[in-house]
Amino acid sequence: MLNTKSYKFWFCTGSQDLYGDECLRKVAEHSKIIVERLNASGILPYEVVWKPTLITNELIRRTFNEANMDEECAGVITWMHTFSPAKSWILGLQEYRKPLLHLHTQFNEEIPYDTIDMDFMNENQAAHGDREYAHIVTRMGIERKVIVGHWTDAEVQERIAAWMRTAVGIIESSHIRVMRVADNMRNVAVTEGDKVEAQLKFGWEIDAYPVNEIAESVAAVSEADTNALVEEYYSKYEILLEGRDPAEFRRHVAVQAQIEIGFERFLEEKGYHALVTHFGDLGALKQLPGLAIQRLMEKGYGFGAEGDWKVAAMVRLMKIMTVGKKDAKGTSMLEDYTYNMVKGKEGILQAHMLEICPSIAEGPISIKCQPLSMGDREDPARLVFTSKTGAGIATSLVDLGNRFRLIIQDVECKKVEKPMPKLPVATDFWTPQPDLYTGTEAWLLAGGAHHTAFTYDLNAEQMGDWANAMGIEAVYIDENTNIRDFKKDLMLGSVYYR
Question: Which of 72, 71, 67, 128 is nearest to 101 (CA)?
Fold first, then answer.
């Protein structure tokens, strides 16, 4: 489940005692007003907490270390209201370990032409002080987000809100634990990866369990609990028998209900937030988990098919980053299946055998029970639907042997031109930016996988900021991509991140 802390962000204003007590009183007053108005905006997903003005080495260092120790603090927002000598910030910045935002703003929006004097100039000089502060952060090589603009501007507030979600993703990344039920699909390269390096870079724990250990948890689920969940399914989803015997159909659905309960209990007991399965190793399970996995994803668990633990962790991460987002449209694992190359109608049909998260669904969600050639088990029940339309991002975290690369592609999700009545799986259909051919060529050149962690609710900048904080390469494919420049970007990345 998506259980995260009640995160807060500290607002730290820089100044010095050169300008006297009256100036410092106004600095504190102004920063308090900014914090109050930001919190009252209704735009920020997390609370901003005002902190006393930082004017000495000792106070700066102590404040940053207190932020490190406070489990609810997900990051610090810094702003230099006046001039703050940058050497005062060195020790604090050296010891700080959480996300950092440099908000380059000022209290007043307009120059007070009729009344401006030197007292005003000394007091309101973020254009001066923030440059001093930015210089030392850059010289120290510290990763941070810079947002420029007036603090009352809704666009600035939206950017702060977006960064907050990234910051929570950075903090929560080190808490992600992935349960591997069986191993990767044999002979598949892209689902492999260095799990030790992933823990060093991202903080992820990726652990393997024998499938029959989880199957025992499934078998232990009572008939009463299973039937209660089946009743929930039947009340929530459309039931498409398609000629099957109703009692036999229900038995197949009950298998998935038992799997959902058993898997979730095992995940909660062991403290895992994401999981992978593989159709080639099902042990005592009666069906390949389908409907069960879809429901677990909807509850906030990450998932990757065929042992793809990188996708599982990324789906979990992106679900964390979108917690509480107003009008959220959903996040899921997806897989590139087949193209439509008709001119003017180009796109990629996204699907998987079974396991697509219903959070991305639009319209009715149905339960079907269909044969599946993979897995050598009885026909698995699954949720079938079509996805929402609109802009989204597809991401692929790949291990290149000597480093990780995060590929981020803007996509436009559309409705398929015609129904697909014989396709018994959930689907999404999108056109990658800048177009099918350029976008796909760039994806292939970057080494992108066929599995993706997809969301409607984050943008490329947010995921790129996360990659920067993790110290890995981020590659963007968007409306401005052209292959000649894209190849140069890949070449430079191979040099910088080797």
Answer: 67
